[in-house]
Amino acid sequence: MKELSFAIMELLAISLGLDRLYFKTFFEDGESIMRCNSYPPCNNSSLTLGTGPHSDPTSLTVLHQDQVGGLEVYLDNKWFAVRPRLDAFVINIGDTFMALSNGKYKSCLHRALVNREVERKSLVYFVNPKEDKTVKPTKKLCSSDEERKYPDFTWSDLYEFTQKHYRADVSTLQGFIPWFIAGKPSNY
Ligand SMILES: O=C(O)CCC(=O)C(=O)O
Ligand SMILES: [Fe+2]
């Protein structure tokens, strides 16, 4: 997973005109998370949460879903099913990478629906920087401070926000900024 994510990081760096090892170096000492999701069957949709619409607050997501299906991405005001393939991973950009690229790459809104008859499982690898590393786009992506779309922050700051103050959704990063600028109030 780590090797795959670094290969993708190299492609992302090349696509942005950066040194190919730029992101690999940035994430090399990172703290990635592997999560197993299990969705029991439920035939009453009003009782079912699944995974609600959100973008991942993390940097890069490598996801494998089983053959049941249920992952959807939002594009042009519509939800599209991501067809399960045993031989493929789904790669998503997360909010932290969006900030690191100064908004040039967008995090992706997605959700997971629950199946009425069978349990569904997915395995997700989230790439993160080291918790105290400053997330700040390189000057090559924004030559002046005025071009900055997000303040400097650390993964630890954003993680704290999503764990204690905010359930990740479509606008986690927009919600995070005022809380962060206000000095991370605990009564938020
Ligand atoms: O189960 C899935 O397919 C999606 C899970 C997901 O979006 C997440 O864990 O962040
Ligand atoms: Fe997700």
From TrEMBL:
Q: Tell me the InterPro entries matching this sequence.
A: IPNS-like_FE2OG_OXY (IPR044861), IPNS-like_sf (IPR027443), Iron_ascorbate_oxido_reductase (IPR050231), Oxoglu/Fe-dep_dioxygenase_dom (IPR005123)
- One Pfam family it belongs to: 2OG-FeII_Oxy
Every Fe2OG dioxygenase domain range = 29-129
Q: Which Gene3D superfamilies match?
A: B-lactam Antibiotic, Isopenicillin N Synthase, Chain
What name has this protein been given in UniProt? Fe2OG dioxygenase domain-containing protein
Q: Which organism is it from?
A: Arachis hypogaea
Give the taxonomic lineage as stored in the record.
Answer: Eukaryota, Viridiplantae, Streptophyta, Embryophyta, Tracheophyta
